[in-house]
């Protein structure tokens, strides 16, 4: 029987028993759900940290330009494991929530600290799932903070409080998972039935969204927020030329690309760029939001442009967009990407001139790189010293 706190003691004991005691709740159930949820959170945390490090590289960090689709896989896993965690977390919280009403709330100081860390764990997990969902739905208005920063720092709170929780609960989990199975429930749902239902919910969510990056499954992708057909030239659009405020600048016949390096500065018209040797690469755009799509890109390799202004081997290249006032205006190609022959200043996609929404007059497309760094409407290319 569950001891209820003050106000809840007024509920008739038989009613309270119905409210709070399901024979399904047990350390075994909670432990099994915890193992599954822990695995999803671990993959989600590591792939999320990786995505952050690629975008804000610490000094020790190295990210290669091959294999070309690696980021597509890691970021696909980040979003897929985050989504699969929704039913797992819901079931796990259901399996323990009567403990929330335990009276007294804590036994001693150590127990109080443990429950505080548990509060941080639950709060940060709910925050990560909610903000992640809002972000992939491109629904920013409920977030009065900058998503990227909040999602990043909360991940550390989640990881820290999860480690404390694991440390405290490991003996309970070990006992629960090595204990002999209790006889199956005679009426209602069995533990196996519940675990199967939760697993099926996670699988259904995955199947309904993973087609946004695993393209053969695109037909199933009823919950994937970005349909591959949305947008011109068969590619999703993250931000249109109009939304970026570049429509006039991009269409200006006086457009010149500025290329700067140790040997000086070139100003190239679109015709100049088109007259240079063109290369074609089949590369995905892999958005941090979990969608990705492969396209055939044609344009001038960045390393040829960098060499034309005297770049030394191993240089980084900074790219600036025509777009003003945007955190995505500037990106830097680190040495592996700047030197990779597949990294293009693309003029064409899938055999057509770039649509304005895909970055006309020209855009960056590089292998193994988050979509957010594939800068559109390029105005300037600088070889960094
Ligand atoms: N200048 C600029 N480039 C940008 C963006 C942007 O907002 N501004 N969005 C980026 C993001 S988040 C993605 S996923 C890709 C999407 O490219 P697409 O719209 O051509 O599919 O463009 C990237 N390039
Ligand atoms: Mo993106």
Automatic annotation (TrEMBL):
What InterPro entries does the database record attribute to this sequence?
Mopterin_OxRdtase_euk, OxRdtase_Mopterin-bd_dom, OxRdtase_Mopterin-bd_sf
Residues that span the membrane, as ranges: 33-55, 75-97, 118-140, 152-172, 193-211
| GO molecular function term, any single one | oxidoreductase activity
| SUPFAM superfamilies linked to this entry | Oxidoreductase molybdopterin-binding domain
The Oxidoreductase molybdopterin-binding domain is annotated at 254-384
Keyword hit for Nucleotide-binding: no
Report what the protein is called: Molybdopterin-binding protein
Q: Which UniProt keywords apply?
A: Membrane, Transmembrane, Transmembrane helix
The family database entries (Pfam families) matched by this protein are listed as:
Oxidored_molyb
């Amino acid at each position: 029987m569950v001891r209820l706190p003050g106000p809840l003691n007024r509920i008739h004991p038989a009613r309270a028993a119905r409210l709070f005691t399901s024979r399904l709740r047990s350390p075994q159930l909670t432990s099994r759900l915890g193992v599954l949820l822990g695995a999803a959170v671990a993959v989600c945390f590591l792939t999320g940290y990786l995505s952050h490090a690629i975008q804000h590289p610490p000094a020790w960090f190295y990210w290669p330009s091959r294999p070309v689709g690696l980021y597509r896989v890691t970021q696909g896993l980040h979003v897929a494991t985050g989504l699969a965690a929704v039913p797992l977390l819901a079931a796990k919280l259901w399996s323990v929530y009567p403990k929330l009403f335990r009276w007294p709330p804590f036994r001693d100081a150590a127990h109080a600290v443990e429950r505080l860390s548990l509060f941080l764990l639950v709060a940060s997990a709910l925050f990560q799932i909610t903000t992640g969902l809002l972000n992939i739905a491109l629904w920013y208005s409920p977030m009065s903070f900058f998503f990227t920063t909040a999602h990043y720092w909360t991940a550390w709170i989640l990881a820290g409080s999860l480690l404390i929780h694991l440390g405290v609960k490991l003996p309970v989990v070990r006992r629960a998972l090595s204990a002999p199975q209790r006889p199956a429930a005679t009426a209602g749902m069995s533990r196996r039935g519940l675990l199967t239902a939760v697993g099926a919910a996670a699988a259904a969510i995955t199947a309904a969204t993973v087609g946004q990056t695993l393209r053969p499954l695109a037909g199933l992708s009823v919950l994937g927020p970005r349909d591959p057909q949305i947008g011109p030239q068969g590619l999703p659009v993250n931000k249109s030329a109009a939304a970026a405020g570049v429509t006039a600048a991009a269409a200006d016949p006086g457009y010149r690309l500025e290329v700067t390096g140790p040997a000086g500065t070139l100003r190239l018209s679109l015709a100049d760029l088109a007259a240079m040797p063109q290369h074609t690469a089949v590369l995905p755009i892999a958005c941090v939001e979990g969608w990705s799509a492969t396209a055939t890109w044609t344009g001038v390799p960045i390393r040829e442009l960098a060499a034309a202004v005297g770049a030394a081997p191993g240089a980084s290249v900074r790219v600036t967009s025509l777009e003003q006032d945007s955190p995505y205006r500037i990106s830097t190609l680190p040495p592996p990407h700047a030197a990779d022959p597949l990294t293009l200043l693309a003029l064409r996609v899938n055999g057509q001139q770039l649509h304005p929404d895909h970055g006309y007059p020209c855009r960056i497309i590089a292998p193994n790189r988050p979509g957010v760094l594939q800068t559109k409407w390029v105005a300037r290319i600088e070889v960094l010293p």
